[in-house]
């Protein structure tokens, strides 16, 4: 079993949920947890129609909660300017098709995620052999069919800008998936990390239920290129973020966040990489035929 990196309790953001069910992190950034995964709402409260952006799209069954939070936070009937995806795994696109259609919203993602978002290919199969808990063992049961938002899909530009999010940059942080991206705002050193690293032991049912704060690499059962994942964590550590919202676990702040992230980057091979596993022995890299499967 891999090790864990403890997190200073003072670095965990435990802000209570507001009336809309979201937790405010910045004046224009809030998040909401949907069972096992977080989604982010970017935009000032009351921003109105097309005045905000949703980052990731939850799990199956989360549509009503996302729509209710959006209406409460931004105004009744307020549609997002866009939905931006960190990647296309099942727990980040669970209600993407429904929301994109209902809101007539464009969807932005990295070009390497396109096959998984236009219905043409599925991700490599999950690996239950990585250990760490029941979630990992159950991973072969997770949905693997790709979603299809091809008619609304826009590819993030090579210059690193995020067209619907002025002031933000996208950073290619592959390893967990070929086209995984993290979002970075340098002005206040805010990072939306997706699953490049996470703040709880996502392989464990107990950790997922309690949201016990620990610094971890990406969820192991779906990570296909561990060398790339390690480089991605190292690149994010170099940013010295002040606030990090990950796809799983509670948000982290301040020196404790930075210390734990640097520890993870330094010890990634021993802390994050499984002792054994399908993609430890045979990584799948962007462009490999094994990177996609028939839908």
From TrEMBL:
Coiled coil: none annotated. It comes from Methylobacterium ajmalii. It comes from the Bacteria. Pfam families: Lactamase_B. PANTHER family: METALLO-BETA-LACTAMASE DOMAIN-CONTAINING (PTHR42951), METALLO-BETA-LACTAMASE DOMAIN-CONTAINING PROTEIN (PTHR42951:SF17). Residues 1-21 are annotated as: Disordered. This is MBL fold metallo-hydrolase. Residues 36-248 form the Metallo-beta-lactamase domain.
């Amino acid at each position: 079993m891999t090790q864990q990196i403890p997190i200073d309790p003072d670095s965990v953001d435990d802000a209570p949920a507001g009336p809309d069910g979201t937790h405010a992190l910045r004046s224009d950034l809030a998040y909401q947890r949907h069972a096992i995964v977080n989604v982010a709402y970017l935009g000032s409260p009351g921003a109105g129609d097309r005045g905000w952006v949703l980052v990731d799209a939850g799990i199956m069954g989360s549509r009503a909660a996302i729509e209710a939070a959006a209406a409460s936070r931004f105004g009744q009937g307020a549609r997002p300017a866009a939905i931006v995806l960190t990647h296309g795994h099942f727990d980040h696109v669970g209600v993407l098709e429904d929301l994109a259609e209902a809101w007539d919203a464009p969807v932005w993602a990295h070009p390497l995620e396109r096959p998984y978002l236009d219905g043409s290919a599925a991700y490599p199969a999950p690996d239950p052999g990585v250990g760490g808990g029941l979630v990992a063992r159950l991973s072969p049961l997770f949905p693997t069919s790709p979603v299809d938002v091809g008619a609304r899909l826009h590819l993030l530009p090579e210059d690193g800008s995020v067209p619907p999010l002025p002031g933000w940059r996208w950073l290619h942080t592959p390893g967990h998936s070929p086209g995984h991206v993290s979002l970075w705002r340098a002005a206040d050193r805010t990072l939306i990390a997706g699953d490049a690293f996470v703040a709880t032991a996502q392989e464990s049912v107990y950790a997922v239920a309690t949201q016990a704060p620990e610094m971890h690499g990406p969820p192991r059962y779906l990570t296909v290129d561990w060398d790339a994942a390690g480089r991605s964590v190292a690149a994010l550590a170099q940013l010295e973020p002040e606030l990090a919202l990950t796809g799983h676990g509670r948000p982290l702040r301040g020196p404790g966040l930075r210390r734990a992230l640097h520890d993870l980057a330094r010890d990634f091979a021993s802390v994050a990489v499984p002792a054994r596993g399908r993609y430890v022995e045979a990584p799948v890299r962007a462009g490999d035929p094994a990177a996609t499967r028939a839908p």
